[in-house]
Specification:
alpha+beta, five-stranded antiparallel beta sheet, 13 strands, about 25% helix
């Protein structure tokens, strides 16, 4: 037996995702990726919002089994553990230094040697929001479906963090990705859990 959210709760979630999608499409916010301290996603999210910035912590749905009753039930989980997205209104003077001062924040991801923050393209932000909406509103199991063969990605955790690569195939129901990573002037193949990847 699978428990689902009541219809009113789903409508509320769907409205929230519609608002988030409109915000990404219609605003001039520049989106960056923030790495939090361990188990501090909620703390960082609240601190960033309290600083007047726009934070987005995408969630997905997972099915779990009760140990006592053996029932299956849906729970919300972090799409990218230890990572969230922050929209900066540069025209209003918002900057990355405001994020770094927030409690629970470890660092802002960069893809350059100079340390310039990685900007997430609008199309990738919309793709993340749409995937989260399918998971939370439609109760679809989307783990691993966020990425497709050919996507340009960046490692966000583990050995080789911040290395860039391309998804060549997906394995184990989409939970693992075979990625060609560029490192030290050559291309290396690696099998990476999808929750250790983000778009670039």
């Amino acid at each position: 037996m699978t428990k689902t959210a009541p219809n009113e709760e789903r409508r509320t979630l769907e409205r929230n995702y519609q608002f988030m999608r409109a915000l990404i499409k219609c605003s001039t916010l520049e989106w960056v990726v923030v790495r939090t301290n361990p188990n501090c996603e909620d703390r960082a999210f609240e601190g960033i919002n309290a600083a007047g910035l726009t934070a987005y912590l995408p969630m997905i749905t997972e099915l779990r089994t009760s140990k006592t009753r053996k029932e299956r039930f849906a729970v919300s989980c972090l799409m990218f553990p230890r990572y969230l997205f922050v929209g900066l209104d540069v025209n209003a003077g918002q900057c990355c230094d405001m994020i770094r001062k927030c409690d629970g924040v470890e660092k802002i991801l960069s893809t350059t040697l100079e340390g310039a923050p990685h900007r997430v393209p609008m199309r990738e932000m919309l793709r993340i929001v749409d995937t989260a909406c399918e998971a939370e509103v439609g109760q679809k199991l989307v783990k691993g479906q966020l990425f497709s063969v050919g996507d340009q990605v960046m490692l966000v955790a583990g050995v080789g963090v911040q290395l860039k690569g391309e998804v060549r195939s997906l394995r184990r129901g989409g939970e693992l990705a075979r990625v060609e990573v560029k490192a030290f002037g050559r291309t290396t193949k690696a099998i990476v859990p999808v929750d250790k990847l983000t778009f670039r």
